[in-house]
Amino acid sequence: MTGTERNDTVTVALELERLRGTLEAGFARADGSLALLVQRSDQTDKQLADHEARLDALERGRWPVASVMALTSGAGFTLALWQAVGR
C-alpha cells in the first residue's frame, strides 16, 4: 500500500466510525421516543378502561325510558281509577 491509499483507508475508517456514532445516537433517540409513545399508549388504555367502567356503572344505575313510562302510565291509570271511584 502506498501512503495515499493508506491515508484514504484511514479517512474512510474514521468517517465510517463517525457515521456509526451518529446512527447509534439517532437510534437511541428513536428508541426513547418509541418508549415514551408506548408509555402514553398504556396510560390512554388505562384511562379508556376507567371511563368505560364508569360509563357502564352509570348505565346500570339509570332507569330505562320504558320503565319510567310504564310507572307513569300505571300511576296515571291508578289516579284516574281512584278519581272515578271516589265520585
Q: Structural class, from secondary structure content?
A: mainly alpha
Distance between the termini: 125 Å
Strand content: under 5%
Give the proportion of residues in helices. over 70%
Mean pLDDT: 91
Largest sheet: none
- Would you identify the regions where 5 or more consecutive residues have pLDDT less than 50? none
By DSSP (H or I, 4+ residues per run), the number of helices equals 2
According to DSSP, the number of beta strands is 0
Rg value:
38 Å
Order of helices and strands: HH
Q: What shape does the CA trace take? A: rod-shaped
Write up what this structure looks like:
The structure is a single chain. The chain is an all-alpha fold and 87 residues long. Helices cover 93% and strands 0% of the residues. The longest helix is centred in the middle third of the chain and has 59 residues, at 3-61. It is rod-shaped. It starts with a helix and ends with a helix. 0% of the residues are buried.
Descriptors:
rod-shaped, 87 residues
Topology:
Layout: H1 3-61, H2 65-86
In short:
Helix content is 93%, strand content 0%.
